[in-house]
Each structure stands twice: as structure tokens, then as C-alpha cells.
Design brief:
Helix content: under 10%
Number of domains: 1
CATH superfamily: Domain of unknown function (DUF427)
CATH topology: Metal Binding Protein, Guanine Nucleotide Exchange Factor, Chain A
Structural class: mainly beta
Oligomer: single chain
Number of strands: 15
Distance between the termini: 29 Å
Length: 181
């Protein structure tokens, strides 16, 4: 993990709580998205990640990275060696993240099933996020996603790819009334 990212991660772990009054208070073993840093940090996650399109396994890993950013549930990035790239087709277009750089998008196909713009990756991220190179992230509202055996709920809003699990407390960017966050 890059030195800058490790410093952000350490600062996040040791920082004092500055979450807003409207934020849910996390209990033991829970995380508030309002305690996540900006700029975001990467945290390794050894829980089993499984991404499916129907019964076909798109990716399976115990070496994922979670990107933690203020106000959003974690986005999970799967290492390239744990992805079945034969199911992915590069999509047209790209987007730019101020932190990570240019993203490319992917369609996922299995048999007759096709999910358009199901995920994205950063082929050449900015140096601070070099650990994300070619890792795959997907929208959990478009594919079936599991983290540690739990079915993931998608972050609200069409643009966001956060993975909501029971230990993650909000409210989250993307919910009604959060357009100004």
C-alpha cells in the first residue's frame, strides 16, 4: 500500500469523531461513513467477496480493497487476478475522479444475460491510489454482491457504487435530500 494511503488510513483510524449531528451513531463493531476521511483511504479486507451475474461468478476474492470516503459506504475493489475477465467487455466512455484518475467502464455478460456499465476500473490511477490499478469495482444494484456471506445493499443513487452492509451507518450520500453533500 502506498505511503500516502497508509498515512491517510492511519489518520482515519486515530482521528477524533467530527461527524455531523444528523449522523447515526455507530455501536461496537460498526462504522459511520461520517468518520471516513477525505481524501479517501484504502483498507485491505480479507472477508470473502463474491460478485455474480445470475449463477455465474464474475469475481471471488479474499484480497479486496475497500475505499473509504466521507459520507459514502465503502466501495469494494477486487484484484484483477480474482476476476473472470472473460465475462467483461469494455464499455465506451470514461469518467474522472479527482482522487483516483480516469476510470474505464465494463459491461458484464454471461450467456444471454448482459448488464451494461456494471463496473469500472482504473488502469492507470494517480500515484496515491496506485494500489487500485486494474482492480474491478461494480455497482451492487446491477449485480449480486456478497461481502463476508452477506448480501450487499446498493448505495442509494444511480452514480454511486458503495456497498452497504449492516455495520455501515449513515445517512449516505445519494439518499433523498443529500444533493448538496
Amino acid at each position: 500500500m502506498s505511503q500516502e494511503n497508509e498515512a491517510r488510513r492511519a489518520a482515519w483510524i486515530h482521528r477524533g469523531t467530527t461527524r455531523p449531528d444528523f449522523a447515526e451513531v455507530p455501536g461496537p463493531g460498526e462504522e459511520s461513513v461520517w468518520d471516513y476521511p477525505r481524501p479517501p483511504c484504502l483498507v485491505p479486507d480479507a472477508r470473502r467477496v463474491e460478485i455474480r451475474l445470475g449463477s455465474a461468478v464474475v469475481a471471488e476474492s479474499r484480497s479486496a480493497l475497500r475505499l473509504l470516503e466521507t459520507a459514502s459506504p465503502p466501495t469494494v475493489y477486487v484484484p484483477p487476478e480474482d476476476v473472470d475477465w472473460s465475462m467483461l467487455r469494455e464499455a465506451e466512455g470514461q469518467s474522472h475522479c479527482e482522487w483516483k484518475g480516469l476510470a474505464r467502464y465494463w459491461h458484464v455478460e454471461s450467456g444471454e444475460q448482459k448488464v451494461v456499465n456494471a463496473g469500472w476500473s482504473y488502469p492507470d490511477p494517480y500515484p496515491e491510489y496506485a494500489d487500485l490499478a486494474d482492480h474491478l469495482a461494480v455497482y451492487p444494484g446491477r449485480l449480486s454482491c456478497f461481502l463476508g456471506g452477506m448480501n450487499v445493499v446498493p448505495q442509494p443513487g444511480e452514480f454511486y457504487g458503495g456497498w452497504v452492509t449492516p455495520e455501515i451507518k449513515g445517512p449516505f450520500k445519494g439518499q433523498r435530500g443529500t444533493g448538496g453533500w
